[in-house]
Each structure stands twice: as C-alpha cells, then as structure tokens.
Amino acid sequence: xxxxxxxxTARVLGAGLRALLVLTLVCGVIYPLAVTGVxxxxxxxxxxxxxxxxxxxxxxGSSLIGQRYDLPPKKGEESxxxxxxxxxxxxxxxxxxxxxxxxxxxxLSGATNRSGDNKELIQWVRDAKAAVVQDxxxxxxxxxxxxxxxxAVTSSGSGLDPDISPAYAKxxxxxxxxxxxxxxxxxxxxIAEHTTGRILGFMGEPRVNVLELNTALRDLTRA
Length: 223
Description:
With 223 residues, the protein is mainly alpha-helical. It has 2 domains: 3-45; 50-222, no CATH class. It has 6 helices and 7 strands, in the order ααββββαβααββα. The strands form 3 sheets. A 3-stranded antiparallel sheet has the order 5-7-6. A two-stranded antiparallel sheet has the order 1-2. It has a two-stranded parallel ribbon with strand order 3-4. Mean pLDDT is 85; it is low at 96-104.
C-alpha cells in the first residue's frame, strides 16, 4: 500500500469520524434538548403526559388514558365488581384498575375485532346494558333500557377511551349522589363543569373525562 493510499484512507476515516461526532452531538444532544426545552416551555402539561392532579397536588393519572374503578376482587371472582360510588368509564378489558383514584396500571390496548353481528359481541352488549340499568337504578330513579347510551355498553377502538358522553355521566348521577351522600344538584354541577364541547364548535362530540370528574368528586366528598 502506497503512502498516498494510506493518507487518503486516513483522511476518509477522519472525515467519517468527525461527521459521526458532529451528527451525534447535533442529533443526539442538541436537537433532543431543544425539542424538550420548547415542549416544556410551550406545552408543559402535554409534554409531561397530561397529568391529572387532585386538590392535594398528587398525580392520579393521565387525562388521555382511561381507568377502571372497581372494588377489590373477591376470592374466586373472575372480574372485580365496579365500585359504584365512582363514575364508571366505557367497558374495556384494557383499563387499569383504580379503586381509590390514586394508582394506575395499564393492562393492554385493543378493540374486540368482532363484527356487529357477532353473537358473542351482541351478548356482551346485552349483558352490559342490563348491568347499567341495574347498577344505576336507585330507590327514586329508574333507568330504562332505552335511556342507556351506546358508549355505556361498547368499548372504544383502543379500549383506552378516557371520556364518556354527557348522557352516560348524567345517567350515573343519581347513583353517585346516593352512594356518596350528596345532593343530585351537586353531582350534576360537577358533570357540567367537566363537560367539554365539540372542538371548534363542530368537530367531535361533547364528552366528559372520567378521571377528572372522579378526581373532582373525591375532592368534593373530602371537603
């Protein structure tokens, strides 16, 4: 190998090494720090996971991910019963269990992938509707099957939907008021305060974030 060939090879290797170092610095250090800085400065809440905090400042979850509110499972019980003092989310096997609204555990994400005429899916919906009617009927309020909205008996495509419709929230208001010793008007005011309208007034549907609503409910009952 001639001297010129060695020098040429050394120059190429040196240029490659310098490019590697520069690109590592720019792409691996400067750019991530810049993006993180801009996100923290302009979108601090979203950059940190859209955390929801209670009145004491404790993080209780993310407003983007739904949670379940169940009683501790009994021995031999396949699935825990819902804790009826809380507003309940949409049906899903993918939501983490959180009976006291202070912990979160994600199990899985995904839809049922069953067609609308699938017999098992139809039975699930019928069972869910019967449970909604039974769980939310009180001594002074009777839920009619026709009053049960679709989101009360079907899961979302991801199975992680954090929101329910205002109709489903209002259907649960009587039961939540009774279980927590509150006036119905207090609970309905909470629902109204945590109802988000359509984006820009025409996109999507009005919705209620269950975690934020239950966090406010807990703060109210502890006041």
